Amino acid sequence: MTPAGPTPGTPVLEARDLHRSFGGVRAVNGISFSVAPGEILGVIGPNGSGKSTLFNCLLGQLPPSAGQVLLDGEDVTGMTPAALNRRGVSRTFQLLQVFPQLSVRENLILAGQEHVGSRLGRLFGRPDAGLTAAAERMLHLFRLEALADLLAGGLSYGQQKLLDAAMAFMAGPRLVLLDEPAGGVNLTLLGAFRERLRAMNQEAGSTFVVIEHNMDFVMSLCTRVICIAEGQIIADGSPQAVRENPQVIEAYLGH
Amino acid sequence: MMRGRPGALLATALAGILAVGLLSFVLEPYGVYLLSLWAVYTVAAIGLNLTLGYAGQISLAQATFVGVGAYATALLMPHGWPFGATLALAGGLCFGLGLLFGFPALRVQGHYLAFVTLALTTLAFLVMRNEAWLTGGVQGIAHIARPVPFTSGRAFLMLCLLVLTLVTVATWWLLRSPWGRAFIALRENPIRAASLGVDVRGYTLLSFAIGAALGGVCGSLYAPLVQYVEPSPFALALSLSLLLMVVVGGSGSFLGPYVGALVAVLLPEWLRFMQDYYLVVYAMVVMLLLAVCPDGLVGLAGRMLDRQRRGHPAEPADGGKA
User: Which chain B residue has the Cα nearest residue A111?
Assistant: First the structure.
């Protein structure tokens, strides 16, 4: 469930001097930033720059070697992914991560059910945990109605991407971390997908952090962008400013 | 959460149980005994199907829980415990043991979990054999009375079918509930499940403990059915046999354990005329079954139904798993 509103001005997410090394490699080397409520923060940078490691540290997938992660001002460093999710943090995955043997609708219900009532209550309560209506709404928003009863494993790549994203919104998250949402999605679908994300941001007031290589997608979706290279932030600002930053051009975008 | 129409699956299982009950009226006592054995093993196979088929945890410890249930019943009934109470105690005890052993064991997955649970089965066998003060050692415990009024072979079969019916309805409810969905999620992708707030460790432990409890219920019926318990029926061979029932029937399929247990109980009987060669043929039949239908007999039946309905071949493997 969404936690009680924090004091105004508190960032939804704050990273304080995060470090993570693998052996001698400093994948994340002192990253600090904060994300304001409602912001859509883009994270760009070359392959191997530390974006995914940063995500994994923020999401409890990997414990940081040093530094802190704060959610609504509260220290959540080292919390498990499941615990973070129950505090309103949800994510999508770079590689497809839907449950192929469940139908599209069941995937969505699963994505919300652990946020409803107690575990014992769910055993004796309704099979859908009362989430059918919410699932229908999400099916409608992401234009997946026609596929609702198909097994998720039978969907096309782009459709699975949409489902993956829809699942991230089932529990009404405060913060969503999207890992390359545009990767592998065809151009026709991409525009609609961006509109969905924007609508979710405005309607639900969710805050997003988006890792993405597709610069057009980043420029048209994000309100702010940070660029990471060699485990450090080399630029932070409006999409336009970051795109024109000489260091970013040098390290990532090229001439 | 079940594939296919949940209501139809429950109706099929209940109709099968009813058919077995009716069949018993035209069978000789030995046939009635085999049907009872089927009902009893089906309960344990349903439990293992929850742990293995739905939640994806390879357990070779199911025989241990059957043994615990059988010994608990054999030891308590002479002290005047009513059968219903020993049945509930056997289930509860095995649920507790499942939590206790599952807590350390479920830190590992896949083949490693298979080995840890194999060790547990071996250890439990040694305890049953060597702790003669409690278990009677290799002599076992004989003359276990059947509960009144279920003393005749057919009456006891009815009791077994009653318990199987209750287990069927309860399992059906469980699998339809969000718990069933969570079990499938942790079989298919535990990392994604965790990112959706699913307590992977908690649900894994529960799937193991509920499976164990059904093993205990099976044992609790087995003891008064055979009226004699000794260690050897609860050795690794039973765990493997139960695993076979789940896989042959269709792992992760609601009806799989019923079909798998039928094959495991009847096939050796049908092959009995082959005498010493029967194990060889049995093994070959099982291998053939697995090669032809990796999703089990229920999966095969589902595909054939699909084909008939649509009038053209259905896509293989995961087309019609019930």
Answer: B196
Question: Whole-prediction pTM value?
Answer: 0.88
Residue A255 is predicted with a pLDDT of: 58
Q: Supply angle C-alpha A42, A45, A50, rounded to 5.
A: 100
Mutate to test the interface with B, among A61, A123, A149, A176 (most CBs of B within 10 A): A123
In a domain, B17, yes or no: yes
How far does A216 lie from chain B, in Å, by closest CA?
Answer: 28
pLDDT surpasses 60 at A3: no
Domain with B92, as residue range(s), is 6-236
Q: Which residues of B touch A (CB under 8 A)?
A: 1, 3, 6, 174, 176-179, 181-182, 184-185, 188-189, 191-200, 202, 252, 318
pLDDT over 50 at A70, yes or no = yes
Q: Which residues of B touch A115 (CB under 8 A)?
A: 197
> Which residues on neighbouring strands pair with residue A29, listed in sequence order?
A19
Min distance B291 CA to chain A CA atoms (Å): 21
Specify the higher pLDDT residue, B283 or A102. A102
> Would you say residue B212 lies in a domain?
yes
Judged by average pLDDT, the poorest of A90-94, A175-179, B203-207 is A90-94
In angstroms, what separates the C-alpha of B15 from chain A's closest C-alpha? 23
Residue type, B23: L
For residues A199-205, average pLDDT: 85
Restricting to A residues 1-30, those with a Cβ less than 8 Å away from any Cβ of B are none
Asked whether the beta carbons of A169 and A2 are under 8 A apart, the reply is: no
**Cβ neighbours for B304, distance < 8 A, ≥ 6 positions apart:** none
- Backbone dihedral angles phi then psi of residue A230, each to the nearest 5 degrees: 50, 45
Enumerate residue ranges in chain B where pLDDT < 70.
1-4, 311-322
Q: How far apart are CA A94 and CA B191, in angstroms?
A: 13
In a domain, B135, yes or no: yes
- pLDDT bracket for residue A132 (50, 70, 90): very high
**A85 close to B (CB below 8 A):** yes
Report residue A6's pLDDT band, with 50, 70 and 90 as the boundaries.
low
Closest residue of chain B to A129, computed from CA coordinates: B178
ipTM at complex level: 0.86
Contact A153 B318 (CB under 8 A): yes
How high does pLDDT run on average in chain A? 89
DSSP per residue, B24-76: GGGS-HHHHHHHHHHHHHHHHHHHHIIIIIIT------HHHHHHHHHHHHHHH
Going from the N-terminus, what domains does chain A have, and what CATH number goes with each? 13-101+172-253 (3.40.50.300)
